[in-house]
Amino acid sequence: MIRIRAAAAAAACALLLAACGSGGGGADASGDGPASVKVSVIPIVDVAPIYLGRQQGFFAEQGLKLELASAQGGAAIVPAVVSGQVDFGFSNYTSLILARSKGLPLKVVAPGAGSTGVKGRDFGGVVVKTGSPVRSAKDLAGKRVAVNTLNNINDTTVRASIRAAGGDAENVRFTELAFPDMLAALDKGNVDAVQVVEPFLTTALKNGGRLVASNYVDTAPDLTVAGYFTSQKTAAAKPELVKRFAAAMRKSLGYAADNPDAVRKVLGTYTKIDPALTSSLTLPTYPAQVNAASLKTLSALAVQDGLIKTAPDVKDLLP
Amino acid sequence: MTSAVATGSGREGRRRRPVPAWALGLAGLACLMAVAEAAPRAGLVKERFLPPFSAMVSALAGQAGTPVFWRALLETLRGWAIGLAVAMAAGVVLGILIGGVPFVRAALASTIEFLRPIPSVALIPLAVLLYGTEMRSTLLLVVYASFWQILVQVLYGVQDVDPIARETARSYRFGPLSQVRTVIWPTALPYVVTGFRLGAAVALILEITGELVIGSPGLGRQIAVAQGSGAVASMYALVIVVGLVGVVVNVLARATERRVLRWHPSIRREVVS
Questions:
Q1: Confidence check on the interface: ipTM exceeds 0.95, yes or no
Q2: What range(s) does the ABC transmembrane type-1 domain occupy (chain B) (predicted)?
């Protein structure tokens, strides 16, 4: 499935040239009544604040009628944003850096989720089976590690973890597996380690898995992992809409940061995570600002690991 | 009827009555359920990754109590029906037009053979570009995939028309419309119905695939959400629902076939035997 998505993403990039800006997204911010704003999100823990913000009326306060379109991943979100089918999308920042360096006109408008910065208590990490000889990130050299998308944020940050622990980051064999398939693959011994995020991290640890690295923590202090973006065209054509969305989003993120219990509760409205599990999940942080320094780190890692030749100017990506 | 057979003769009476097909079908399903229940319990597969059948059923019961589930089911059925209807209309009209004119048919044969094997899922980026993650992008895949199934059947059907009958109709100066009505349609109808049956199944598969991969609303998206939430039992519960929908779709297609073609020798034979 992931491979189909990757192929789809590649083809989408080619097709974007032919799109010529057809299709209209949400209405403009001008005029009476609330402006409708379409946002494409992935149903994961990271996007809880936007659901909370809608519940709390933060978007209505800004005169926005929020319409959330749930997509399965970046392969569907990026083309939808660039073609103007939706106004905003959610993605991890390495994907945006890669897209930007390939000339896709994307702009970050608000942060989404960040690392907790606490080793061993982050919302993502590398897990091995009980009894595995791998004790730390350094031991991952020469091992098979599953990540959900090759050549993206998860393999670059795992490599950063290995380097930080003094290991050989060149000598790791990454395999692409969807998060839901990883624990079974680890259990069967098809891979030696898996990089998972919540709710699979807590599930893995509950079933006897051992955490060997907190790859987001090892990469940069307060790494902003993912956030909301728009196309340059939307940013230029609807600056008022972008401003109001960013304001509502910041308020939602602040509320989510202050009310972790509300976050856990709202998860039940758009995911099917077992309610017994939600109380023990490690939530990401919901920062109010994009950490520009951590974006630069991700960009440098993408260059170092050969994902792109030259790093795009992070300033172009930021609002 | 059974008593008549029983009293026919001693030997007839002793012969075991054949087990009806539906009972065999149910027995097959029961076996499948038993295996699905026993395999995880016996430790052949880990319960964490493939829960026993009873756990799936109880997850299904939980799902059935939520409006989200019913809305998703309705969205899937709606997408399937609209997609199939569009493909059906386009396939039949174009099939008769293309098939009816030998020149056009020869000219388009290679194009059709080129477009037909393109997997619908390869068009996902195009669909997302045009319609985002709405229902319409999945609809595009559904229509594309089932249209070829129907078109090709209609083409076969039109080709099967007796040339003498066509010539006769022509020499009696039947207009094109009455030629279609009186000569082409009766011959092509069994093929059209076969196309409908094949298209109905393909449309359902593509509807679910589109929802799964793109994230347009429906059961497929619910499966993807359950996967992403690590809710294994719920995921399999929804997969079971998709299977059941498939069975219903097939039964409906067969019933339509029997109804529309009740005059046709193939169906009459089926009824007699």
A1: no
A2: 73-253
